Amino acid sequence: MEPPAPQRRVTIVDVARHAQVSTTAVSKVLRNAYGASPEMRAKVRRAIDELGYRPHAGARGLRGQTYTIGVMLPDIRNPFFPEILDGITGRLADTDYQVFLGPGCNGEKEEARVTEAMIDRGMDGLILIAPISPRAHLERIASAVPTVVVGRHGHSSVYDAVTDDDVAGAFLVVRHLADLGHRRIAHIEHHETDPTRIAEMPNAQRADGYRQAMRSLGLADEIDIVSTSYTQQGGYEGAKELLTRPRRPTAVFAGADIVAMGVLEAFTEAGLSVPDDISVAGYDNTTFAAFGPISLTSVDQAGHEIGSNAARILLDRIADRQKKSVQVKLSPTLAPRRTTAPPSA
Amino acid sequence: MEPPAPQRRVTIVDVARHAQVSTTAVSKVLRNAYGASPEMRAKVRRAIDELGYRPHAGARGLRGQTYTIGVMLPDIRNPFFPEILDGITGRLADTDYQVFLGPGCNGEKEEARVTEAMIDRGMDGLILIAPISPRAHLERIASAVPTVVVGRHGHSSVYDAVTDDDVAGAFLVVRHLADLGHRRIAHIEHHETDPTRIAEMPNAQRADGYRQAMRSLGLADEIDIVSTSYTQQGGYEGAKELLTRPRRPTAVFAGADIVAMGVLEAFTEAGLSVPDDISVAGYDNTTFAAFGPISLTSVDQAGHEIGSNAARILLDRIADRQKKSVQVKLSPTLAPRRTTAPPSA
DNA sequence: GTGAAAGCGCTAACAT
DNA sequence: ATGTTAGCGCTTTCAC
Fold first, then answer.
1. Distance in angstroms, CA of B95 to C1' of C5?
2. How many angstroms separate the CA atoms of B287 and A257, rounded?
C-alpha cells in the first residue's frame, strides 16, 4: 500500500522531457515567441495536451508576466458596473489574459489596499473604475503598473483614461425635460468635499452640465440643486427636501438611477404620482431603470463600450509602456421612458 | 543626467540588509513563524516600515502560500451575491488574506476556465458560489485546492459546503400565502435538465419544498408548477402562461426575486393589480424586493452569514487539509411585504 | 534563536 | 533553431 502521492503539479520540465526538447523550447511555444520551428511547436503542444500541463502564473510573473488583469470597482451593487465588466471581458476573451476583480471598495483606504494587493500579485495591468483616490495616488499606481482609469475626467500623462461625457449627458436630460415643457427642473447631486478632486468626478460634471444646460435654455433662475449623495438614501432625502419648496419643482433630475430610486420612494410615500404630478429622470440606464413597472427615463452610458475601450487601451500600454497617454471620451444617449411627461399645470 | 532608474521593487534582501539580519529572519517575521526573538521582530518590522516593503505574492506562492482567496460567482448582476461577498470579506478583513473575484460565469466552460485560472495563480483557497459544474468536477477542484461550495445541497467528503435550507424557505412562503387564505398557489421554477445535478440545486429544492408544503397543507390538488428559468424573462413567460389557466391562481411563488420582477412586469401589462388581484412572492430578499415602491414579499437567506461561514470554514481547511468535511445549513426567514395579501374572491 | 544555502517553476541572456 | 544556465523573491530544510 503506497501512501497516496500528493500529486505534484505538471511543470515545464515534465513537458520538455515528454516532448524530448528543452524547457526553453516549451517556454517559447507557450509565449508564441520567436525561435521555434513548426515541428517543434506541434511536438510541444501535443505533450502539453497529453500531460494536461498549465503554466504556473506566479512562477511566470517572477520573470515575465502573470497574464492577469485586475479590475477595481467601488461597488458591486451598482448595476451599471457589470456592463463595463462585460465590455472588458469581451475584449479580453480571446487573449491569454485573465480578469480578476477586487472586492468592492468604498473608501480611499480600501482602494489602496486592493490596488496594492493587485500589484503585489504581479498583475500585468489594472483597470480602475470610478476611483475616488487622489490623482497623485492614481499616478503612483500607474507608474508601478500599466493602468487605465475609467470615469475620472482630466488628463494625466501617466495613466490612460476612458470617460463618458457627463456634461453632455446632463444636457440630454435637461433638454428632454424642457422640451416636455418643464421649467422648474431640480437636480440632486452627490456632495463633493475634496477640492482637488472635484473637477474630475463624474458627479461634479453632471451638476455642471445641469447648470450649463439650464442657463443655455434661459432657465438660469430656476436652477435648484440639492446636495446629498449617490445612494438611495440620498435620493430619498433630497426628494424630501424638494417637497418643502414653496414652489415645488415639476421635474427632478437625479444624478444616478440609484438616487432616482430613492426619489421615487419618497414621492410614492408623499402620495405623488409619477409622472402625472412630477417627472423624474435618472442616470446610468441600469436594469432597474429598464425594468417595466419602474420604466425610469435615464442616460445610457454605453458601459460595454467603455469597458472594451479600457481593455484595448490597457493591452496597448502593456505592449508599450512608453507610449503617450490616451484619453477617450464616449458620448451618452438618452433613454426616455414613462417617468417623464409634460407638467400637469 | 542619469536615465530614470526603473525603480526596482524592495525585496526581502533589502529589508534583511537594512535590518542587519538574515533573509530567513525577515521571512519568519512576515509569517509570524516560530524562531525569532522579540527584539529581532521589532528590528525587522522597523526596517519593513522604513523601506515600505511589501512581499511579492507570486514569489511566496512558489514555496508557500499566496495569501489569496478566490471567489467564483455565476452572475454579478444577481443582487443577492454581494451579501455573501460582504460576509466573506468581513470575516477575512483582519487576516492576511486578500479576496479576488472571478468575472461572472454563466456556463460550465466558463466556470472551469475561472477555477483553473485561480488554481494556476496559486490561490490558497476557493469559494464557489452556486456553481453548476458537475459534482465530479467540483471534487477535482477541491482535491487540488481547499474549496468551499456555497449553495449546493448534498454531501461531499472532499469539499466543505454551506447552504441555506431551501425546502424550509419554500415552506415559509407557501404557509404565509395559505395563512392569508390562498389555495390556488402556483410556483415558477428553474427548469433543470441534468439528472445527476438536480437533487443538489437550490432551485430543485425550492420546487420540492413547494410541493411538500402544498401537500402538508392539504392543497395537493392545487399544485401548479411552471418550468422556465431564474431570469426576469423566465418570470415574465411563466406569468403569461399562468394567466391562460382556466382557473387563474390567486398567488404566485416565484423561485427568485429576479423571477418575481418578470412576473410583476407581466401582471402590470395584463392590467392586474398586485396584491389586489393576485399576490406575488419571491426568494432571496434582494434590495430590489426591499425597494419601497416594489415592496416584494421574499425569503431572506442571510447572505452575510452564508459568506462569513464559508470564509471561516475555508480558513479552517487551509489550516488542516486532512480534516473531515463540514456541512453547514442555515435557516431562512420570511420578509412579508406589500405584494402579498388575502385573495379578493 | 539564528543564518547559509537549496530550490519552487519559469523566462531571458547567452551560448552553440 | 535549439539548448544551457542564471536568477526572479521567497520559504524551507538544516546546520550551528
1. 31
2. 14
Q: How far apart are CA A177 and CA B186, in angstroms?
A: 43
- Calpha distance A276→B267 (Å, rounded): 22
CA distance B121 to chain A (A): 5
- Give dist(CA B205, CA B202) in Å, integer: 5
How would you classify the pairing of strands A147-150 and A125-129? parallel
For residue A200, what pLDDT band results from cuts at 50, 70 and 90? very high
**What confidence tier does A205 reach under pLDDT thresholds 50, 70, 90?**
very high
DSSP-derived secondary structure for A32-88: T-SS--HHHHHHHHHHHHHHT----HHHHHHHS---EEEEE-S-TT-TTHHHHHHHH
pLDDT value of position A49: 97
Interface test with A, best of B86, B101, B127, B157 (most A CBs within 10 A): B101
Q: Compute the average pLDDT of residues B138-165.
A: 96
Q: How many CB pairs under 8 A join A and B?
A: 118
- Residue B263 buriedness (CB in 10 A; 0-12 / 13-18 / 19+): buried
Closest protein residue to C3 (Cα–C1'): B22
Nearest nucleotide, C1' to the C-alpha of A39?
D1
Point out the residue among B89, B121, B291 whose CB comes nearest to the CB of A261: B291
- pLDDT tens digits along A10-60: 999 999 999 999 999 999 999 999 988 999 999 999 999 999 999 999 999
Do A117 and B104 make contact, defined as CB atoms within 8 angstroms?
no
In this complex, the residue with its CA at the shortest distance from the C1' of nucleotide D8 is A62
Residue B293 near residue B339, CB atoms below 8 Å? no
A146 touches A317 (CB < 8 A): yes
Phi and psi, residue B48, nearest 5° = -60, -45
On chain B, the residues whose CB falls within 8 A of the CB of A10 are: none
Reading the block at residue A320, the C-alpha cell is 508599450
Q: Which three cell numbers stand for residue A213?
A: 444646460
Strand C-contacting residues in A 58-117, CB cut-off 7 angstroms = 59-60, 62-64
Chain B neighbors of A293, CB-CB under 8 A: 264-265, 268, 294
Q: How does residue B192 score in pLDDT terms, banded at 50, 70 and 90?
A: confident
Under DSSP, is residue B254 helix (H, G, I), strand (E, B) or coil?
Answer: strand
- Interatomic CA–C1' length for residue A59 and nucleotide C7, angstroms: 13
Report which residue type is found at B117.
Answer: A
- CA dist B170 → A172, B149, B220 (Å): 46, 22, 15
pLDDT digit string, tens, across residues A279-293: 999 999 988 899 888
